[in-house]
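no rush on this but wanted to send it before i forget. theres a chain ive been looking at and ive put its sequence and its fold in token form underneath. i want to understand how the tokens follow from the sequence so walk me through it. thanks a lot i owe you, the record is right below:
>
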Amino acid sequence: MAERIIMFCRYYVLLVVLLPYRTLQFFYHKLSFQVSRASNLDAAEGVENHAPIEPKPSSSFITNSEIQSEFAHHAPGVAMMNNGSFGCCPASVISALHQWQLKMLRQPCNFFLNDLQNRILESRTIIKDLINAEDVDEVSIVDNISTAAAIVLQQTAWAFAEGKFNKGDAVIMFSCTYGAVKNSIKAYFSRAGGYVIEVPFNFPLNSNEEIISEFRKALEREKGNGRKVRLAVIDHVTCMPSIVMPVKQLVKIVREEGVEQVFIDAAHGVGCVDVDMQEIGADFYASTLYKWFFCPPAAAFLYCRKSATYSDLELHHPVVSHRYGKGLAEESFWVGTRDYSPYLVLPSAMEFVKRFEGGVEGIRKMNHDAVLEMGKMLAEAWGTNLGCPPDMCASMIMIGLPSCLGISSDDDAMKLWAHLRKKFGVEVRIHYQAPKDGEVVLTTGYVRICHQIYNKVDDYYKLRDTINQLVHDGLALLRSMRPEEIRLINKKELYI
């Protein structure tokens, strides 16, 4: 009997004593989890049960220390002046990206079947307002410019196959057209029987009129030969060498000459230059969102003007999936199972941009002014020149390199590019500009520098001093060599 009493006290009395504590503890942890979970999901889902965000007063704009904190994940000791290649993503947007990824992984079926389409529509609506498009159905989110180019050029291949275009009908583009887009023209247009008109791009440039004149001459010459020009491919901002193109004037010429379609490759578009679809007037306009608008790779969009979207053009995503035939925007939002999170952080990127005085326009102006100032400083330090007037650059600018560096081929440019990155922690792009036939020029090597909000003056001083050191070391080496050694030296090995 005594043993049973002891057993009763050991278990049941202890249970009665501890039950209120355990119960309270359970509900405390349960409530904490629910609050934490709701907070995370609100961040990922963009729920609207919070008070609306009011515009920040001038005293609340982002500070320099906050900017540096947002990009503290950048590699230390590297002067990153090559934002134009792959862009940048602030920590706050990276956090939103991770929240979307976690939301998808928590319950994939619910995410893909119930949430994804509406969230992508939200991002498309932001883009529509950002570029002043007429209708959200004109905007399709894609991963990059290569996909956008494939969509536009794929329909031209079908036009040849179906007899809408004739063999020998042409596409016109500039010689500086980006290599991946040139390959798309080759793969779809040329292979189907099309002819390519390549307009010379005579860099360095002194005015927009030089570009417009060359374009008009090429177009009129081919039309005079009886050539039907079906498509014009024009950069908004060229990659290498980097120049802001006079797209509005070029589109106007294309329309006057009866070219049916205009595709603007604006990889460096949104966040770098002013983008207004009503003013530009192109049929197709593609821009990345990860180069200059703070999204992670890979997020971009293709704008298709309403008249093109609802015409008899066969516009389809090159990846055929379950949404095929439901319109390009529908096809693009679902291309099979993949990580769509980069498409969904547009609201977070927009909130980041709003932390700056003047928003996206203020950022563009700041970057332009800064890159111009740094470009002039470098040109003066090296005794060279800028590649174009100030009004023909945006957030990137070309500066001539000292001729004694011996950049006399694309291979030389690639080697110097790699050498600066690997040995000195200087991240820029190097361009070789071949002289025209019979032309004698001192400067054939150019560096492209970019300016984004995280850049500091010291980055450009590091580039300046590195190039000066290479010049000094190269001249010292040559002074120490005998004439026969100088004749035998392979200048390409100087940068290995």
About this structure: Confidence is low (pLDDT under 50) at residues 1-58, 489-496.
